[in-house]
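Shape is hard to put into words, and the shape of a protein is harder than most. The fold becomes a row of whole numbers, each drawn from a learned catalogue of backbone shapes. The outcome of that step, for a single protein, is printed below.
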Amino acid sequence: MARFCGIVGFVYDEESVPGVFVQKPIERTYYGDAQTIRHDWQQTDTLNDNLNVGHRISVIADEFAYGHFSAMRYVRWMGTNWRIRSAEVQRPRIILTLGGVYNGITPESA
């Protein structure tokens, strides 16, 4: 089992003015284990196939992660932001299953 130290990206709604909500991205560093490492190519009708990973990463969570685990959107691992497909709470850890490449909002793009 490989060790993991990386960024987990959260995106949640924040009220900027009464009745107006904007998406606010935030990144936090977490440590844990990379439990399963696998990938596959998904054939599409477009020019290039999509790369999907089935990595399962178990991070040691803090209170912020427990309170905002539904806002977890991506994990930065091996230089790429990977979309979180599911998050399973097993205290003191949260097990993240990754999917394809994440192209959504990040602190750099906001």
